[in-house]
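Notebook, p. 212. Picked up where the previous page left off. The plan for this session was modest: take the two constructs that came back from the sequencing core last week, fold each one, and keep the raw output in the notebook itself so nobody has to go hunting through shared drives later. Recording the first one now, exactly as returned: residue sequence, then the structure token string.
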Amino acid sequence: MLDLIIKNGLKFDGLGSPPIRQDIGIKDGQIMTISPSITSQAQEIIDATNLWVTPGFIDIHTHYDLELEIAPGLSESVRHGVTSVVIGNCSLSVAIGEPQILADIFQRVETLSHKLIAKWLKKSVSWQTPAEYLQHLQTLPLGVNVAPLFGHSALRAHVMGLERSLKNQPSKFELNIMERIAADALDAGFIGISIDMFPWHRMSGEFAGDSIPSQHATFPEYAMLADVCRRQDRVFQVTPNIKKIGSFLEIFWMSLGIIRKPLRLTILSALDAVHNRNMWRMFAPILFIWNCILQGNTRFQTLTEPFTIFSDGPVTPLFEEFTTGAKLNGCNSRSARLELWNLEDFRNQFIKEWNDKKSLAFHRKLELMEVVECPEKSWEGLSFTEIAKRQKQEPLEFFIQALQKYDTDLRWVATGANDRLKPRLEMMKHPHIFPGFTDAGAHVRNLGYYDGAISLLKQAIATNFLSPEVAIHRVTGEPAAWFRLNTGVLKVGAKADLLLIDPLGLEQPLSPQVQISDPVLDGEMRMVKRGSEEIIKGVFINGVKVVNNGEVSDVLGREKLGDVLFPV
């Protein structure tokens, strides 16, 4: 007898094939049979007439490493149909190293709350090696499948010590140790290695404001790690330094496949940036040369919707790219920030840096920055430029005064990229650009793109830029094959991780980000998405229904449903 039969659903296999109306039989968490009509008996039968049956979605860029230790159900992603996540991105992982050092590396980069960090530190780290970390992951009541990358920042700090990893280059002996540990990590089952060159990812703790360890490496160290991945055909994930053209040349050189085996390389990120409206046009020709002529194996990642970030006054990841903004982010209190604002030299330097438009990541256009919440209620819904005009003030002067007066009581929002439909669709359909890069689990007060796959499907339905089967393939079977993960496809013998989708719900517009008090974060605020409850009618992980018509089951995070995914 089968445990479950899903009958009469329109099955999408995750490979991009046209959908077929078929029944799916499940037993012991595995798909046992797929047929036009299953007549076997089952403990439960679900009629999926008028619904799509698809593989669970794969989120290829998350920062759930710490949250997994506290709330391994990852319900915020699961409610939107995600059944597998890649962790350990941007050189950040907890696979090796001292807990406090790892916390100091994570906290400011991902703007995680002090409460969450403290809660994790109480549980501490019980593993000594990357292999032991994977064994630890397998003991957790995982809600989703987890595919871990091995983070370079953790590795560098572990081998060199935190202070030297931020100030010096490794000795030949230390470099050899890094290579051995990295190779052992891949042997143990990590799907690859992540490095970070992005100059505005900064430390908290004793070395607050310094760039994280991975950014202090030089080309030989990066190249060594790339070669470790190349030898085993594992993923090498890179966040480039947009201020340094040389970083792109280094990445390009590491990945070349003409004279050697190509590197399985994924890069953040392909975006239509507000500050440079022609940048998005570069990705297609670059990828054609890179992959088609020079025989590379490179995939960029893009966000499937406008890149909108919420900020609490002067406390925002958007300010990390310039010195005075980073100093504000580094303050531990409102009074400390006020002391800075009261210094004339600091204010003048802030103005100078704000007006410096070289190598921007954030556009700094006050006319595109809107007040969301403020004690001055009449400001809400208006841009800083509009309010300054009413106040008869110069916009930047007004902005500084508002930040100084209201601090984090002033909440504002800005969209920095992917706000135009046509460029966004062009990037999402490019065969060498993955629709991904949600950053789920990070910047919980600033962004909440947990529904990236749903957003892709909505736009496919609204514009026909992709057929439904190809859109589903792009967030299931395609990334699974490229990352070498045994998931993302509906076939006999596969783990029963699948979704029931109401296609009528996909006719809605993209969902806005909303703020909730999240019990996972002990009641702290978190940006999330809603609306998927009208689309995702069922989520099954290991054959167990964990979401039913938008309601998340309390079994999620209590019973082990997900697996650690090893490369296949």
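Okay, moving on. Second construct, recorded in the same format:
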Amino acid sequence: MSSNFNIEEELKKLPGRPGVYIMHDENDAIIYVGKAISLKNRVRQYFQSSRSKGAKIERMVTQICRFEYIVTDSELEALVLECNLIKEHRPKYNTMLKDDKTYPFIKVTMGEDYPRVLFSRTMKKDKSRYFGPYTSAGAVKDTIDLIRKLYQLRSCHRSLPKEIGNDRPCLNYHIKQCQAPCQGYISKEEYRVSVAGALDFLNGNYSPVLKMLEEKMLAASENMEFEDAAVFRDLLGSVKQVAQKQKITSGDGEDKDVLALAADGTDAVVQVFFIRGGRLIGRDHFYLKIGLYDKKATILNSFMKQFYAGTPYIPKELMLEIEVEDQALLEQWLTERKGQKVYIRVPKKGTKEKLVELARQNAVIVLNQDRERIKREEGRTIGAVKEIADLLGMERIHRVEAYDISNISGFESVGSMIVYEKGKPKRSDYRKFKIKYVQGPNDYASLEEVLTRRFSHGLEEQKELEEKGLDQELGSFSSFPDLIMMDGGKGQVNSALQVLNTLGVDIPVCGMVKDDYHRTRGLYYQNVELPIDEHSEGFKLITRIQDEAHRFAIEYHRSLRSKGQVHSILDDIEGIGPARRKALMRTFKSLEAIRSASLEQLANAPSMNTASAGKVFSFFHPGGEPQGNFAEKSE
């Protein structure tokens, strides 16, 4: 368990509010995402020994090294955020939630001259306005019915104004639930006023409607019109349920970052919500040391310059809680960095304003409850990266890539590429390579193949994206690292540099050197081995990166073996059939012993002769001359 995260202490800090909790294992991978009406009550249940949790959850709990959470304003928001995060991260233990269940939306067809209010299960990039998603389809339908009754909006499929006057008005006109635009009984301008009222209601201004329904319900009850009172009561309940408006999903499908700040004395936390494709898929928070009298606008301005100077991806829109200094200049700078227009906005009402407020609430919680842990975490990640940059004499390091090779006696070699950004693993950018062109156990050649394929592909992707005018972040290989770390010393580093020089790529490369006991001892950089304090956070980060690269390569290799794709290296020797393979393994016990055997020893093994022994010897010693004289052994 991470020494920087004390589960018992963190459980005491949990708020009694709705939200989503995220469980991480020792490798910081997300293994479970859940929602709760009360985070305090729900998360504590996992760690109570008296509760029966089932075998699956018991296994999961043993793997939890830390958890985090995002507070929401309602259980509904928690539910949809949970769904978004599961689809994004595919946690190991969320088997019951790995579906593509859809939630209903209310759709207002603003692209039409006479808009309609409709029920929809999908959200498209069109001119329509979408509200939701919601968990109750019945409540959505009731609300649509209510809106039609209140604002008398049409529900037909007629093409207006093209078909005005082509047919008689429908029943809805006669029961006063439509103003019959199909007959020209209401002008386009008057109809749009009713549509604006419906949009105002859907945007959250339902107090007048709730008040009106409640008054009608009470009036009907007093007049002993109980059936009418029941109708108003049911509609009132439906509106209240829909009033839990969803901020977690955006209808425009755009990429946004939502930034909010909480400050106390000389400590501050900036919370960043990442919205991609219209869905909130994650968040991060950043601890800052500030001056006692620094203004929020100044702090946010400084943070944005530092954060977006280092991040490889800039979204189309940034939403802030307050205007910052030099906002127009910041927009211009971000636009130049992205290559297309970037907007900085401060929403004042509606869904966007409530989403910014939600980010601010999370920032306050982090600052009040987690400031000491965040400081330690910053030391483990960003602070550790800065230590490494200082050691190597580099100005800054944002992205690090590390590589490793795994094989069994040279057969079915595989390569791993892992990525760390700001001192944290970025698992979405990890890549696996099955070695295609190198025969036998040659780690140097295998590393050269992996690096050649990775950066050749990256250069091609960069060129394609540049020709299309797209951001490099859209490619899987187009983002290049600030530093490459090889699992090894001088040989591995020189192999990497040779590949990069051939491709014309200028990236610093260092080697993670181990001692005789296979423990990390320092970095090999620019032909010098640099010692590093083994108690420092930089050293611990190097060790984590090295272990992670090795783990990822081993897991890939293991998965290939489990699928039956890895067989004995002896299978690749021409003329050596099953009987001779078995005889060699029975005689020499291991592939290493076969590799080390002389030609005479191979020929004397059961089922072998001079010709077959020569093939085996030549396979393991290409270009080598057999030593010793011996008579050919008969079959």
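Notes on construct two before I forget. The chain has 19 helices and 19 strands.
Flagging for discussion at group meeting.
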